[in-house]
Design brief:
Chain lengths: ~100, ~700
Amino acid sequence: MRHTGIVSQIAPCAAAPAAAQGAAQGAAQGAAQGAAPQGGWLARTIARIVPVVRRIIGVPDYDTYVRHMAVRHPSEAPLSERDFAEERMTAKYSKPGQRCC
Amino acid sequence: MPTLQKLIWSAIAVLGASALGYIAVQRGETINAGWLVTAAVCIYLIAYRFYSKIIAAKIFALDPARSTPAERLSDGRDFVPTNKWIVFGHHFAAIAGPGPLIGPTLAAQFGYLPGFLWIVVGVALGGAVQDCLILCASTRRNGKSLGEMAKEEIGTVAGFTALVAVFGIMIILISVLALVVTNALKSSPWGTVTLALTVPIAMIMGLYMRFVRPGKVLETTLLGLGMLVFALFAGKWVAENPALAPTFTLTGPQLALWIMAYGFAASVLPVWLLLAPRDYLSAFVKIGVVFALAIGIFIMLPTLQMPSTTSFFTTGDGPVFAGKVFPFVFITIACGAISGFHALISSGTTPKLLANEVDARFIGYGSMLTESLVAVLALIAACILEPGAYFAINAPAGLIGTTVQSASAAVSSWGFVITPERLQEMANSVQESSLLSRTGGAPSLAVGMAHIFSNVLGGPGAMAIWYHFAIMFEALFILTTLDAGTRVGRFMLQDLGKHVWAPFGRVSWYPASVLASAIVVLCWGYFLYQGVTDPLGGVNTLWPLFGISNQLLAAIALCVGTTVIIKMKKQKYAFITLLPLSWLTIITMTAGYQKLFSANPKLGFLSHARWVQEFLDKGALPPGVANAANASRMIFNDRLDAAVAAFFLLAVIVILTCSIREWYAVLSGRKPAVSTEVPFTPRSALAPIP
């Protein structure tokens, strides 16, 4: 019950930019969130929950970053996924405001 | 409000009031945990629906049509408009650490009632207000940090004080958390092996994510969870192996040195190798165990064994920590009721993620209510132990001795009868040689949790495995706070130090980062070592210092909040921050004064130093102290602790004075009331792009 609530809430969040920027979305290969998941009920549910859980535990969102770069800075090449993850992690553990008591 | 809604809210109010009324009349008899949970949840619902509305609607007038920093400054990195449920989960995972589990467990020495009332009242009127208000203020200021807001709203002195206070709090926080882990693992080969294995597990995860399956975080985390289960059974195997067990049976000082080495390594190693994988694992386990605990308590509906209040309520000579219920219950329970640390999160990552500023109420106020519920669950888990067992686990060896006979005699003399056989049987049931004097709260909470979990799954035979699971879970996320805190402390120190010597500030220069990490580790390591070698257990000294420092940070946040409110010309609603602020000022000042100047050597740092000195003058040694050098070091430590407490009190006074001057200047019209908010821009003015 709870999960479907979360997923239906997030769907427009991920889909709206995809619709507005179809070409950019294609370039971003944002398959995890943009494309409709294939397969049975379980596979689809897992495919929907995975990005939610990833972001809750604090994994940097590469797809959003690539979409952002494609829309806002189309002339610049985005960082590779590994460089992006490294840049985000280094930033995360260098200032207070991430972890509490 | 439509009639149906009125009816529903009236029903919630009546239900909450009945549960509270039942708790009130049941004093002196045992009570079911269900009453506490019901009363708490009803109070949370009502506080959220009615009290948080004052912040959202009256003060900030949160407007769904207003653009947020995430939208205006969108960069795909820090500023990313995010769904409110994800932000809620992320914010909750960031604020909820070991604090709401440990504080309520320690405060259970006064009985369940004082802690329970402070948790639910404190969160509704204090903690959640602070978190929500700072989140709103920061969101309206492009995600500025608490320190920046203190500087901008109150002045440079306040801003600098806030900066130094944050560093001081980190040091005390890390040392007390490390002490809790040390006390949970000393002489426990099972626990030590399990926790030690989490380090190579994290490294394997880090290497796997980097070289084998880049970006596959959830897959790797599931792999890590599997390895954690393996580590749990590996610990059991080592503990039962007579050849290996002694190697991993470590003393407190040995463990303290290992933990310091770990903190240093985490600070200088690349984040992808150790810190990041641990963090993912710990966030996952944290949310899972909190859910499991809630479900376990709902299924089991245990009866609390602890009385509503104990005699330590008024005598102030409780074995867990010294001091009367006022002010010490309010100092001991910070996280769960009001925690200043949250202001750093509410002005850190979270304001940069809000897609709609209206969500600030749900995320700021709502996740703090959730944390408060976690604190209530922890209090319940600690109070379902028989009181005699609770006190035997949480009282230092200086008071109860080191044998089950002496512990039974001492604890029974306080009025909590327990036999030596029962104490031994309890230690056997969790496969530990002894549970006596495992101060710090984590082990007694783990026994309570093992009780609940084994009741639902596995039966009494599973007590040992659930106990060590709970210890591993607590230690895992304590170490996550410790390693991330050490690294952040290192960066803060390098940032401060660059004004003295420029190369020290170069974060990518290895000698500077090694030096800064070593300084930070030595700072908290000193307090840790002092706590480990203290015959009174250390928690008695360090936890109140942590509580005072955390409440100091809350006072800073509430001063910033009040200034923001006054500059928005909403002073008729300033009561919402002034109420918790005045309470915090009273309790931090009273507690700090008592820790400094109380004539009781168990309570006051300076009188304790004099007490030790008197022994030395007579050519004798205080009980539990091995030699004169140790006694002299105790005197130095007492004075150091006194200086730290004095610094925190001074910081409260400085911030308050600066704030009151600023409020007076604005209210009297000498200074124009100008809000520093970013002016309104409609959301529709910008295309909804990522």
